[in-house]
Amino acid sequence: MHPFALSRAVETATAIAAHAADPNLAFIAGGTDLLGLIKDRAALPERLLDINGLPGMARIVPLPGGGVRIGALARMSDVAADAEVRQRFPVIAEGLLFAASGQLRNMASIGGNIMQRTRCPYFRDADDLPCNKRRPGTGCSALRGLNRTHAIFGWSDACVATHASDVAVAFAAMDANVIVRARSGERSIPFTQFHRLPGNTPERDNVLDRGELIVAIEVPGRIEGRASHYLKIRDRQSYEFALVSAAAAVATSGRRIASARLAMGGVAHKPWRLTAAETALRGVSLDNIDALRSAIAASFADARPLANNAFKVELAQRVALRALQTAGARI
Amino acid sequence: MGDGRERYSRTDEKEQTSDTFTATSPDRESAAPPVDVATGMPRREFLKRTTIVGGGLAVWQGLLREEPAAAVEQSPTVPGIVGPTVAVRLRVNGSDHQLRVEPRMTLLDALRDGLGLTGTKKTCDRGECGACTVHVEGRRILSCMTLAAMQDGKRITTIEGLGRNGHLHPVQAAFIEHDGFQCGFCTSGQIMSGVAVIEEAKKGWPSAATTDVRRKLTLADLSDVEIRERMSGNLCRCACYPNIVAAIAQAARRG
After folding, report:
1. Final residue in a domain of this structure, among B40, B63, B86
2. Considering the entire predicted model, what is its pTM?
3. ipTM of this model?
4. In chain A, pLDDT over 70 holds for what percent of residues?
5. Across the A/B interface, how many CB contacts are shorter than 8 Å?
6. d(CA A171, CA A219)
7. In this complex, is the C-beta atom of A86 within 8 Å of any C-beta atom belonging to chain B?
């Protein structure tokens, strides 16, 4: 492994100051993504700052109004097991449980989860094949290479990778906020604006600046949260990244949809919210499968599959439909 | 970055990942010094500089832990180490250990090479196979995906520490009874994971196999389907999965 220095932060303000002042410093929490990147030489930090000892950042606190605040250092397994999270947002608990393995969920932090980098095999390749995300300007090997697992929405010629996190899809569907602290104070970033589309700068996964630290994710209370579900389709039934996944949440009036929330994973460089479908679903009966299907199709007019992943366009619509139906059955 | 240097760096990387063996290599000192790929400077020189330069120097120094000199002197250094070290205190299987490790040394390498606890296996070294599973503060984790220096002061259990007073742990006994292995290389990880799966089920933790996560769960909900899902992070090349599931199910029934 690439050599680095390691130190332990005991105070949030000092940790943020260290990060702001040092372009070669990386925060480390669970380490389950970062250490893999270092082993594959896809990240070469000179200094790691262990933030696990920062005070108060692992708490999971119910918020008034039915929301929940999840500290950035809370472990995936603790969030998934939390009674309030399971009641208020089953989609979040399921998003976590369908990811990684029991051991990794005990290690990986929520902040690190949404910071994890793409699983595009070219990005992680030890032979250092061209990849604009890994080394800007070298080109995208996946654009005309093996791209079965890659994006169908929002990609650019510079990058066709997808975001790997499952729970991020659930957070996007529930309009969570990423609470970020810098030397100048705190800011709250709407989850759907936290991750970026690749454009010409695919090396930037999100909008965080140097010297910023995620301290929590806040999920506001939503009635739809209680009738929510995360569905993940993958090549292997367990311990595998998504080909396509959907986070769905719904509120009804009688059998008709009053409000639906839909976001998808495995289809874009960021969790992909189906806003057109959400609008079209309003007023549709949960029992009218044809109408549900055509409402969902409203969000797929702009799908742009690559050479190997055209199957995702149909698969994603079926996954969205089934996730919505399962969520609806929880009302 | 030219092709020649990339190639060199990769050779270098291989050398680094097999630190385990460098201590026994008589050619180690006579070989060309490893070169850092980013700077092109000899690694020892690079290490010296990276610890003493950088924009955040003052802050960085302020973050460094104070280490009592006495502890530093007494701590044995793990064989094969080439760079600066930090002192780590680990409580492994009920015994306190102090050792000096490079910051980049994983907990797995520290257990195996530093403490000689080779029951924990190194297979993929990427968090994909589960063979390196140990318990830290009672929770199962992958020792290849955490740094030893990040576990300072922690209570760690490895397969060597699972039995009590010469008796096998019930999960170990069940693996023998149900023939839960062939080659045995994944077995210590399987057993460490299986023990934790039972504990997690007792705490009522859900899994991806749980139909309704809103419901309260107990150990009685630990069906074979649940066990298979919860054990999916432990791969067995010999495909002893049915016997592994049977062993864990029996141990769970016995409480």
Report:
1. B63
2. 0.88
3. 0.96
4. 100
5. 172
6. 7
7. yes
CB contact under 8 A, B54 and A90: no
For chain B, how many structural domains are there in total?
3
CA distances from B130 to A29, A125, A304, B134, B192 (A): 20, 22, 37, 9, 10
Minimum Cα–Cα distance from A34: chain B residue: B145
Indicate the residue among B46, B63, B80 that finishes a domain: B63
Residue B76 maps to which CATH number?
Answer: 3.10.20.30
Please state, in angstroms and rounded to a whole number, the distance separating the CA atoms of residues B142 and A305: 36
B118 reaches A (C-beta below 8 A)? no
Q: List the domain range (segments joined by +) for residue B217.
A: 170-253
More confident residue, A11 or B58: A11
Q: What is the mean pLDDT of residues A63-70?
A: 97
For residues A239-263, average pLDDT: 97
B58/B73 same-domain check: no
| Cβ contacts of A24 on chain B, cutoff 8 Å | 54
Cβ–Cβ below 8 Å for B228 and A238: yes
Select from B84, B145, B230 the Cβ nearest to the Cβ of A31. B145
Are B179 and B241 found together in one domain?
yes
Nearest CA to A139 out of A125, A118, A163, A122 is that of: A122
> Which one of A2, A49, A107 has the shortest CB-CB distance to B146?
A107
User: Which among A38, A47, A81 has CB closest to B205?
Assistant: A81
Q: Which of A35, A25, A165 is nearest to A95 (CA)?
A: A165
Q: Please tell me if residue A8 touches chain B, with a CB cutoff of 8 Å.
A: yes
Instruction: Say which of A28, A81, A101 has its CB closest to residue B232.
Output: A101
Q: What is the CATH number of the domain that holds B211?
A: 1.10.150.120
Indicate if B105 and B125 belong to the same structural domain: yes
Instruction: Inspect the interface and report whether the beta carbons of A5 and B106 lie closer than 8 Å.
Output: no
> DSSP characters for A128-183?
---BTTTSTTS-BTTTTS--TTS-SSS-BTTB------SHHHHHHHTT-EEEEEET
Q: Looking at the structure, do residues B143 and B91 belong to the same domain, yes or no? A: yes
In tens, the pLDDT along B151-172 reads 999 999 999 999 999 999 999 9
> Do B157 and B204 reside in the same domain of the chain?
no
Q: Which domains are assigned to chain A?
A: 5-50 (3.30.43.10), 224-328 (3.30.390.50)
A14-63 pLDDT per residue, tens: 999 999 999 999 999 999 999 999 999 999 999 999 999 999 999 999 99
Which one of A4, A50, A102 has the shortest CB-CB distance to B230?
A: A102
Q: Is A103 on the interface with B (CB under 8 A)?
A: yes
**Quick one: B110 and B153 in the same domain?**
yes
B133 touches chain A (CB under 8 A): yes
**Cβ–Cβ under 8 Å, residues B236 and B190:** yes
Closest-CA residue of chain A to B81: A3
Q: Are residues B31 and B105 in the same domain?
A: no
Domain match, B147 and B178 both: no
CA distance B230 to chain A (A): 6
**Burial class (CB within 10 angstroms; exposed 0-12, middle 13-18, buried 19+) of B212:** exposed
Tell me whether B14 touches chain A (CB under 8 Å).
no
Element (H, E) at A246: strand A244-253
